[in-house]
From TrEMBL:
It comes from Notodromas monacha. GO terms for cellular component: Golgi cisterna membrane. Keywords: Golgi apparatus, Membrane, Signal-anchor, Transferase, Transmembrane, Transmembrane helix. SUPFAM superfamilies: Nucleotide-diphospho-sugar transferases (SSF53448). Its main location: Golgi. It is found in: Golgi apparatus, Golgi stack membrane. PANTHER family: CHONDROITIN SYNTHASE, HEXOSYLTRANSFERASE. It is an enzyme of class 2 (transferase). One of its GO terms (molecular function) is glucuronosyl-N-acetylgalactosaminyl-proteoglycan 4-beta-N-acetylgalactosaminyltransferase activity. This is Hexosyltransferase. It is a single-pass type II membrane protein. Belongs to the chondroitin N-acetylgalactosaminyltransferase family.
Length: 739
């Protein structure tokens, strides 16, 4: 009997894997662009069957805004068998130049007069006239609505297009309009803004009669007139659907201009919506599209994780080892038990704060950042959607749908092998479905649940194009820019390091780097050897220049002026070309050849700026450790997480964000100001990560009391952090070896 159960389970799991993989590959291959095709895209042979025609009503004014946004978002990923057309008034095409290709049809004898009753009826008629026999379903849509074609097909494939259907969000009008909309008793209409779906039979019966409807208008609402026309001429006196579920499928936000401008993760019904309305600003189309794409990716990731688990189950069952019923039942579930040292400690998330403990934790309590909030929202979405979509017999018996209300607290930990684990304590609302309930049965109630969720990591992917890009980037010249005031001995060490890092190519006789030094000269200052500082800097520079006719090192001297790091970097960048790659550096930084490669690979023109996190040494007199350059232990130094002064950026991008603030003089703040502006732009991404190839060598910090209050506070904070680790300071205080 057990052997029979094993074979039966093996067959079932193999069938699930085959179907799941087939669906994943099929859904990827059948997404053919309608308006534009990506370069290199291959034609796919699919059956010549057309399912849905989407007619979108727009005006001349929105052809270059909302229409373009629609073509570049949801219309660009329509599945095979779904086509669209924008309908505009006569003469609109002659007045507009389109920035992207799109399908547009002029309605003869129609203008942009509002309200557009005749325009809506004319579009309905021409949809039937042009494509009446070519599609099973027809969708009427406004230009400020987003269509999720995947959810649309889920609904329509369960219905018969040869039967009369009029599907949308049903409405009866405002209270003050009661009795003036010419609706019969119990009648309603489909709201036009959120979209209306017609079956082929409905269109065939009604469309030939729209001219009679256009001559018999009773209201100023185009959606009411269209639905009145359908009711009058359909064979079944068809009205709009009355299901309460349509409010979620045809989603309308009553926020007006502010609709969908907030956090989309908090809007639980977006994942099931067929249409999303209204999107008054064109940029909202891109925001919604990015969110819907993320939702689809999450679903695919979950399916991929399930396939991997089932594959593991098959391999276990095929190994020939005896398996009990409990083993088979347990094998497909995620194991949350520790499996070694690859787990980080649990963190507590409560009251919008994160509480953490451990040797690598800098702050035991910190605010809930956007990245963590997004991760928790995704875990909650995964939990609620799985509970609400699975065939839960008890939930169906209760006739409830599940909605997330609030999070009490959560635990989180990271596994380098498996993903992110969450323990969620949430309150869920069980909402009624339908209207029939017993007298003693509550319609809605809340339940507190303690749930475990794992968000798995994706597998490793290697992109073949990266190999070609690597060779190009490896040859790109990195232009160092170094502000300098005093510190001649440190400057000499920097030059030695720079010379060994950027070695001369013996074939070409050139270096892969250049160095621009902006030296603030004080005529009264001299070195310990009695040299004039300017003479010493000029002498050191000449020693390391590669060729006299084409020097790799350029010295710019600024005399008798108060030092400003931001101004110095601006002066150094002034001579660079727009497409030159700049590396803004400090004299205390030791740079490895690998770090120079990181500058090349992590900086992209017009896309990404590189803000590496440097390793900063503690004061050797306090730290009490050997000067081992290969060590990055907690006792030797720390990662300078809040230092933004070392930057890889292209000259063009630096100019685009406004460069450095030259009004900031003295120590600090100019780097934070630049980082804030870059992080706040939509076009540039601030790439930030530790770089072992950048080491900040310890030096005494002297904070000028004349600095601005905020700069002085930052300087003193950095001075305190750089003394030694907390553990070492505690040991010194306990032993009373510190004065």
């Amino acid at each position: 009997m057990l052997r029979y159960l094993l074979r039966l389970r093996l067959f079932f799991i193999s069938f699930v894997i085959t179907c799941t993989v087939g669906i994943l590959f099929l859904s990827d291959e059948t997404n053919v662009r309608t308006a534009t095709r990506s370069p290199g895209a291959q034609e796919i042979n699919v059956p010549n069957k057309k399912l849905v025609f989407v007619g979108i009503m727009t005006t001349v004014n929105f052809l270059r805004t909302r229409a373009v946004a629609g073509v570049e978002t949801f219309l660009s990923v329509l599945p095979h068998g779904v086509e669209y057309m924008y309908f505009v008034p006569e003469g609109a095409l002659a007045r507009k130049n389109f920035s992207v290709p799109m399908n547009v049809y002029e309605l003869k004898g129609v203008d942009d007069t509002y309200p557009p009753q005749k325009k809506a009826l004319a579009m309905f008629y021409y949809m039937w006239k042009i494509h009446g026999n070519g599609f099973d379903w027809f969708v009427r849509l406004d230009d400020d609505a987003y269509l999720n074609a995947v959810e649309l097909l889920k609904l329509l494939r369960s219905l018969n297009p040869n039967e009369p259907h009029l599907i949308g969000q049903g409405a009866t009008g405002r209270k003050e309009e009661a009795g003036s909309l010419f609706l019969g008793p119990g009648d309603n209409y489909c709201m036009g803004g959120t979209g209306i779906i017609f079956s082929r039979k409905t269109v065939a019966e009604v469309a030939p009669n729209v001219f009679e409807c256009a001559n018999n208008l009773r209201t100023f609402h185009e959606d009411i007139e269209l639905c009145r026309c359908v009711k009058q001429f359909s064979s079944t006196n068809l009205s709009c659907t009355k299901s309460s579920e349509t409010k979620k499928l045809f989603l309308h936000n009553y926020g007006g201009e502010q609709a969908f401008t907030g956090d989309l993760e908090a809007m639980q019904d977006l994942n099931r919506a067929i249409t999303i309305h209204p999107l008054k600003k064109a940029e909202l189309f891109y925001k919604i599209h990015a969110y819907i794409t993320r939702l689809n990716m999450r679903r695919i990731h979950q399916e991929m994780a399930a396939v991997k688990r089932d594959t593991k189950a098959i391999l276990t069952l095929m190994s020939g080892k005896p398996a009990s019923y409990e083993d088979m039942k347990r094998i497909t579930y995620v194991q949350l038990l520790p499996d070694g040292t690859n787990f980080a400690p649990w963190e507590l998330i409560a009251d919008r704060r994160i509480y953490a403990a451990g040797p690598q934790v800098d702050f035991p309590r910190r605010g809930l950042d956007h990245r963590s909030k997004t991760g928790i929202d995704a875990a909650i979405f995964q939990l609620v959607s799985s509970m609400d979509s699975l065939p839960n017999l008890k939930r169906r018996h209760l006739k409830r749908t599940i909605r997330f209300r609030r999070l009490h607290y959560a635990y989180r930990r990271y596994s380098t092998l498996n993903g992110v684990d969450y323990i969620l304590d949430v309150v869920l609302d069980y909402k009624k479905i339908g209207r029939k309930f017993k007298k003693d049965q509550k319609k809605d109630f809340s339940v507190r649940r303690h749930s475990y969720v794992r968000v798995p990591f994706l597998g490793l992917r290697i992109w073949p194009k990266f190999r070609n890009q690597t060779e190009v980037k490896r040859k790109e010249t990195v232009n160092f820019i170094l502000p300098l005031k005093g510190r001649i001995d440190t400057f000499s060490r920097f030059l030695r390091n720079w010379d060994s890092t950027c070695k001369v190519d013996h074939v070409t006789g050139t270096r892969p780097c250049t160095l621009t030094i902006v030296f603030y000269h004080d005529a009264k200052a001299s070195t310990l050897d009695g040299w004039n500082e300017k003479t010493a800097v000029e002498h050191l520079t000449s020693l390391y220049n590669n060729r006299a006719d084409s020097p790799d090192i350029r010295l710019v001297t600024v005399s008798d002026k108060k030092f400003s790091r931001g101004e110095a970097l601006e002066i150094g960048a002034a001579a660079a070309m727009d497409d030159d790659l700049l590396f803004l550096i400090d004299v205390d930084i030791m740079v490895s050849p690998e770090a120079v490669d990181h500058v090349r690979f992590n900086t992209e023109l017009g896309k990404q700026v590189w803000f590496p996190i440097t390793f900063s040494e503690y004061d050797p007199s306090f730290a009490g450790v050997d000067d081992d350059e290969s060590s990055f232990g907690d006792e030797r130094g720390f990662w300078r997480k809040y230092g933004f002064g070392i930057v890889g950026i292209y000259k063009k991008d630096l100019v685009a964000v406004g460069g450095f603030d030259r009004t900031i003089s003295g120590w600090g703040k100019e780097d934070v100001d630049l980082f804030s502006r870059i992080a706040g732009t939509k076009s540039l991404t601030a790439m930030r990560a530790p770089d072992p190839g950048l080491v900040h060598v310890f030096h005494k910090i002297n904070c000028d009391p004349q600095l601005a209050k905020d700069q002085l506070k930052m300087c003193l904070g950095t001075k305190a952090i750089a003394l030694a680790s907390v553990k070492r300071l505690h040991e010194l205080i306990r032993s009373q070896n510190v004065s």
